[in-house]
Amino acid sequence: MNELRRLIIKGSVAAGTLGVAVGAGLLVPGRVLAAWPDKAFGQKKMEDALTTLLGSAEMTESAEISIKAPEIAENGAVVPVTVTAAMAGVESITIAAPNNPAPLVASFDLADGAHGYASTRIKMGKSGDVIAVVKAGGKLYTAKKGVKVTIGGCGG
Amino acid sequence: MSISRREFLHLMGMAGAAGLLPGSLRAANQRPADIYETPRFGNVCLMHMTDCHAQLNPIYFREPNVNLGVGGALGKAPHLVGNALLKQFGITPGSQAAHAFSYLDYDAAARTYGKVGGFAHLATLVKRLRAERGDGNSLLLDGGDTWQGSGTAYWTRGKDMVEACNRLGVDIMTGHWEFTYQDSEVIENIGAFKGEFVAQNVKVTEEALFDYKFSDFDGFNEDAGLAFKPYTMRSVNGVRVAVIGQAFPYTPIANPSRFIPDWTFGIRDEQMQAMVDKVRAREKPDLVVVLSHNGMDVDLKMAGQVTGIDVIFGGHTHDGMPAPTVVENASGKTLVTNAGSNGKFLGVMDLDVRNGKLQGYQYRLLPVFSNLLGADAEMQAYIDEVRAPFLAKLQEPLAVAEETLYRRGNFNGTFDQVICDALLKVNDAQISLSPGFRWGTTVIPGQTITMEHVMDQTCITYPETYRREMSGADIKAILEDVCDNLFNPDPYFQQGGDMVRLGGLDYVCDPNQSFGKRISGMTLDNGTAIEADKQYMVAGWATVGSQSPGRPIWDVVADYLRDRKQVKIDKLNTPKLVGMAGNPGLEDYPAA
Question: What contacts 24+ positions apart, CB below 8 Å, involve B234-238?
Answer without folding.
Answer: B234/B139, B234/B171, B234/B172, B236/B44, B236/B45, B236/B46, B236/B136, B236/B137, B236/B138, B236/B139, B237/B43, B237/B44, B237/B134, B237/B136, B237/B137, B238/B43
